[in-house]
Amino acid sequence: MTTPPLVEQLTQKASLVSAVVRPVASMDEAMAYVADVCLGKEACQILASGCDAPLSDTAEALCQTKQEKIICAPEMPAEAMATLTALCDEKGISLITSGMRSRLGGIDIGLTMAVAGIAETGTVVVRSMSEEVRLASMVAEIHIAVLPASTIVADSYALEPQLVAWMGQPDYTAFVTGPSRTADIERVLALGVHGPLELHILILEDK
Amino acid sequence: MQDATTLKAYRAQLRDALDNDFQRQALDKFAVAYRASRANAFAGIDAPELIAEIAAAKDVAIDQLEELFAEFKRHAEAAGTKVHLAATAHEANEIIARIAKENGVKTIVKSKSMTAEETHLNDHLEGQGFEVTETDLGEWIIQLRHEGPTHMVMPAIHLSRYQVADLFSEVTNQKQEVDIQKLVKVARRELRPKFCQADMGISGANFAIAATGTIGIITNEGNGRLTTTLPRVHVALAGIDKLMPSLHDALRIIRCLPKNATGQAITSYVTWVTGAVPCEVGPEGKKVKHVVFLDNGRMAMAKDPEFKQVLRCIRCGACANVCPIYRLVGGHKYGHVYIGAIGLVATYFFHGREKAKNLVQNCLNCGACKAVCAAGIDLPTLIKEVHARIQDEEGHPAYSTAVGQVLKNRTLFHTMLKSARLLQKPITGGTPYLRHLPMFLFKDQEFRALPAIADEAFRDRWEKIKPRVTDAKLKVALFSGCVQDFIYPEQMEAAVTVMASKKGVAMEFPKGQSCCGLPLLMMGEKKAGRELAAHNMNAIDAQDFDYIVTMCASCASYLKHGYKRLFADDPAMTYKASQFAHRVIDFSSFVHDVLGISEADFAGPDKKVTYHAPCHLCRGMGVTEAPRALLREAGLDYLPAEEEDVCCGFGGSFSVKFPELSKELLGKKLANLKATGATAMATDCPGCIMQIRGGFEQEKTPFEVRHVAEYLAERLKRK
Q1: What is the ipTM of this complex?
Q2: Nearest CA of chain A to the CA of B160: how many Å?
Q3: Is B435's pLDDT higher than 90?
Q4: Residue limits of the LUD domain (chain A) (predicted)?
Q5: Coil, strand or helix at A99
């Protein structure tokens, strides 16, 4: 089976900005991937997230609040949650769907559904009226977004009617392209500033 | 933040900036890298078309700001956002402080906002006892250092990793390693508690969409998303020029802004926030949400036909990225709050004449900013216009008025030039240069040798050399400009020889012509400039000719584009200027495109020659191919130089006013030319020749610097 052109373009463009892109055949496969990434992650992401750096006392104290491996998956479909709950129980991972405000020191993985993809820029669109979705996708060290292949459009203009409809009431929607980044010191690229250190996009094949 | 009170003090600051080696290297590297990454980012996209669309859409929005504000307010308030309009910077700060007080706020986190820099919001809030923390990495760094940004999108580009490590060591009371990746993570951890504790988040807004009352924010670090999510109060501060009718207008700008800013296809985050969204710690589980629009002169500007285009600016910072002067001195000396070319213009409007009057003179008029502007703003013209307005308001300096009086009177000007020829004898030492300059007159000018006035002006040679044409096919008026008329008449003669090699080219040199008037524009003498332009259009009756050919790139672009602008308020003169401009063409384009001179016309030995692209030819006239093609067709071995289209530092009176900058730019140019391995250079502008030839002469490097016409003339096949 050949890859549809929009999927191919999104994969290519997202990879250029350091996102990890994987096709998945089913939601079960996606959940297995999530659990595997969490398991394969260092027991403590101190190297990546900077806990090894000497810090001031307040910042140090905040680091101490995170002790176990946590996935936060707010607003995921019920059947996906059933699969993921079973996997997390089996592997000893803590799975939550809310309470992000007491986890601001950081969690391992924030898992969200993307509502659309933009092929031209390798972007996933995350609609996050829920504060839990916003925080899970920002505070996590790794943000994993499940993107149904059928929702990928060519460019941002193609998404315009949908966006305008959402904006008809209070709304919070983001275009997310790669992990958070900066080049503010000597124009040297560094991934993972205030947001995730990694972005994984799981492109869910159409049934 | 440039705030010198006199030009002399400003020049002293500029000299200090030139000694900042780290900043010089950082900006040099960026200037070169930016060019490639921008081109790469726009690959496959019609950038000029996109820019034209943005400009047109912004113009539509600018004409209806009041209506857009009302529409935004209606939709935003229906969704739970309170909308404010602040007439002044102070009023905006007061509104935000009041919101903070009403909500019992103690601590505030901020994501990046140039508008907040404009109003000096942090100072105001801190003065009222609030704790304010910038969360954009670069902004946090400069906040900790108590200084302003040096670039609109890379505020700490002037600092090294060593300086940041020292700063972070101080902030954390722990020794930090000099490792950028680790320093970024230190900021991540140090700022996270600030987000958690903050009662209020202040953001800017890149877009305010009237149709839905939505704001759009673009960031890379994710601090914008945390600032708008974690605290219970969110205030967005935006210039009222950020209002646009629809989402489409914003999406269009997003296609351009990150690419133009840093060569990035799109930022990591584009966040769209409409109304009061759920917030666990907010009253009734909702965010307290305010949008404050800042007028601060923008509404008046929107009604100013000349300056309304300033409001098109989308704050990408590209005008600084390509500015040869910014590259030398950095943002602290090349802007007050707003930096780069747009800063030279905006400072006058947002921060006043005092802050703008020295700054605005520091422009080469090279046009690099205009060529890259995401919104097609004619920045060089606006900079000169601000300069002229300040002079009209403050009174013109005596020397400037005097030059205006002389230049607009051709007879007086030319008589003075001829007298100068006799008076210069003691200082030329028989060479074509002014050898023994009276230094009190030419302070700091010794970085280049200045040419002497020629023994016989072109206008006095014309009758002797004028080609007699019996079967005229094309009627051509020659416009020499002052430099080629009085200093380099041999360039004019060469051009005449080349054009005469094709049959039927009937040339005239209308003797009434005088200086094109560009020097007056450069000095802010707009009124004298208009008189001079009118004089030239009378001296050369455009209707009598098919073409008006000039060998000087600066004259060409000024005659073609500048004259029309001078008479924008006078329909009859605008028509006349259009008729005139329509016929103006530069030498290389005329010879290559119109006369169709080709390889068959030339012969001569192999010779390596490099090229300098004059600002006013490659950008001013949009001519890039013709001169290079001519060199190749004439059988010359053309070796391209690095940064061929970067200004040589002449800029007319600029080089007299800011010799320390002119000298640095000339140094770079000479180094790039020498690096080609050629020992000869062609160009299309006598001003550039004066600068570059003078530079080589001064450093005693044997390097031939001549006009394209001269190379062609000596290689023409004898018939």
Answers
A1: 0.92
A2: 6
A3: no
A4: 8-204
A5: coil
